[in-house]
Design brief:
single chain, 101 residues, alpha+beta, Alpha-Beta Plaits, 3 helices, 43% helix, elongated
């Protein structure tokens, strides 16, 4: 499953977030990064980071989220798909609905 994660990192927890990142990378216990983390400066309350990753193991995703939220990072994770695949599914569902009046 491919996902995009948005992390809100306040200056108060930045050092802990950095430590968490290095600990996870060095332990090799991490989701597979497809698009590396990028940060957007938010002058009022810290940083907004986003990353695109994949994992077929839901517990690995849960561990990833828990590692950062435990140190105070706010995180939202959304599953993502390629638009062409989503359109194929949509067309299939639409046809099923048309065939079953």
């Amino acid at each position: 499953m491919k996902c995009i994660a948005f992390l809100e990192i306040s200056p108060d927890v930045m050092d802990k977030a950095i430590e968490t990142h290095y600990r996870r990378v060095s332990s090799k216990r991490s989701v597979k990064t497809l698009f590396p983390p990028h940060m957007i400066a938010k002058t009022t309350d810290g940083f907004l980071e986003f990353v695109i990753f994949e994992s077929e193991d839901e517990s690995e995703i849960a561990e990833y989220v828990a590692a950062y939220t435990r140190v105070g990072v706010k995180m939202k994770v959304y599953p993502i798909t390629e638009t062409s695949k989503t359109l194929e599914i949509w067309e299939r569902l639409k046809k099923q609905l048309e065939d079953d009046p």
